[in-house]
Design brief:
With 394 residues, this protein is α+β, with helices and mostly antiparallel strands. Helices cover 29% and strands 26% of the residues. The protein is built from ten helices and 18 strands. The strands form two sheets. Strands 1, 2, 3, 4, 5, 6, 7, 8 and 18 form a nine-stranded mixed sheet that branches. Strands 9, 10, 11, 12, 13, 14, 15, 16 and 17 form a nine-stranded mixed sheet that branches. α1 packs antiparallel against α2 and α5 packs across α6. The chain is globular. The two termini are 15 Å apart.
Length: 394
């Protein structure tokens, strides 16, 4: 199937940035030009998983442990631009020990889901937003930029061929587009070669029996990002840097860690893998401003849905001291985290070296649960889509 080339992506690909040296800027622009007419070759697996075995795996798929039969892949070189677009049997990549990604961590990724509708069709939720964020991440990491239309086409092609892997009920097919620097060299410079790929993993409902409030550990020893860094980029290094803090949270009996700003160590930023919201007694919502945090697509969707209902939403700094005081005074009614995997997770307890406190008595609040239901109903096609977020694959 031919890819419809997005001219706006071409213009963005050619836009200079401080992070990308001059020669790389030119190659990115010409690579976008050469992407016109790129077609995906479909190579179905010769020995796909049997229907019986697939059904058994889908009974309780968990999260990120089971994978579908195929992957989509596109390769990049400075000489050819983006080329060799294929959907083929999922298999290992052969990597030379000197492959750039293994030494300099030049890689980015995304996460989105495909949802089965009641009529048997399949929805994608805001894949254009993922494509834009992927493009922005590539620019910040000095990587070749992938046209957004190619990103979306790769995702759709994989969903089409592996549609049988989408669980029913509240399950979904989690899609992981990613890009790695594949040039073989040792030296600190942007790679001249890249591999873009999409893999798929069937996942069940994140919460069995409904969302239970999570406990949060406030990290005072570790920070996630600083101004001018890669906090707004979806790259593996950010998540690797959060793992020690997450381990500290688990050591203190908590489910998740929340990070403070890197300068004053006072302002709430985000969790290890989710954005955060606060609900106040006047009905308003607040969430930390963008800049050093990931611009979450679920975060953006919640802001839009809340405003649709007439709720005032503030994107502003919020200190951990104020969080504690507002929870104790009753001014803060709810707090919740959000992201693609869990959608919305209510926060019931906050722990730190300064002491613990409960939010909403440690129970899930009506605002968080109402927003969660509204968002999920849109994703599965059970409710109207006022913002045209849904892209029907078939």
């Amino acid at each position: 199937m031919a890819v419809a080339f997005d001219k706006s992506a071409q213009n963005r690909a050619g836009r200079p940035t401080e992070a990308r040296p001059g020669p790389e800027i030119a190659s990115a622009s010409t690579a976008a030009d050469r992407t016109i007419g790129l077609q995906f070759e479909i190579r179905p697996a010769a020995n796909p998983t049997s229907e019986k075995e697939r059904a058994a795996r889908l009974v309780d798929p968990g999260f990120g442990r089971i994978f579908s039969d195929h992957l989509a892949v596109v390769r990049y070189t400075q000489a050819k631009g983006w080329h060799d677009a294929r959907v083929e049997t999922r298999a290992n990549f052969p990597l030379d020990p000197a492959t750039a990604v293994l030494h300099y961590a030049q890689e980015i990724f995304e996460g989105l889901k495909a949802y089965r509708r009641e009529d048997g069709g399949v929805n994608l939720f805001r894949p254009d937003a993922n494509a834009r964020r992927f493009h922005n991440s590539a620019e910040r990491m000095a990587m070749a930029t992938l046209p957004e239309s190619v990103f979306i086409e790769a995702v759709e092609q994989l969903v089409r061929i592996d549609r049988a892997w989408i669980p029913g009920g509240e399950g979904s097919l989690y899609l992981r587009p990613f890009m790695i620097a594949s040039e073989v060299f040792l030296g600190v410079k942007p790679s001249a070669e890249y591999i873009f790929a999409v893999i798929a993993s069937p996942v069940g409902s994140y919460f069995k029996g409904g969302p239970a409030p999570v406990s949060i550990w406030v990290s005072e020893n570790f920070t996630r990002a600083a101004i001018g860094g890669t906090g707004a980029v979806k790259c593996g290094g950010n998540y690797a840097a959060s793992l020690r803090a997450q381990a500290e949270a688990i050591e203190h009996g908590c489910d998740q860690v929340v990070f403070l700003d890197a300068v004053e160590r006072r302002y709430i930023e985000e969790l290890g893998g989710m954005n955060i919201f606060f609900v106040f007694d006047d009905g308003s919502l607040a969430t930390p401003p963008l800049g050093t945090i990931l611009p979450g697509i679920t975060r953006d969707s919640i802001i839009a849905l809340a405003k649709d209902s007439g709720t005032r939403v503030r994107e502003e700094p919020y200190t951990v001291e104020q969080w504690r005081a507002d929870a104790r005074s009753g001014k803060l009614k709810e707090a919740f985290a959000c992201g693609t995997a869990a959608v919305i997770s209510p926060i019931g307890k906050v722990r730190s070296t300064s002491g613990d406190f409960l939010i909403s008595g440690g129970t899930a609040g009506p605002v968080a649960m109402g927003l969660r239901k509204t968002l999920i109903d849109i994703q599965y096609g059970r409710a109207s889509d006022p913002h045209n977020w849904i892209r029907k694959v078939f």
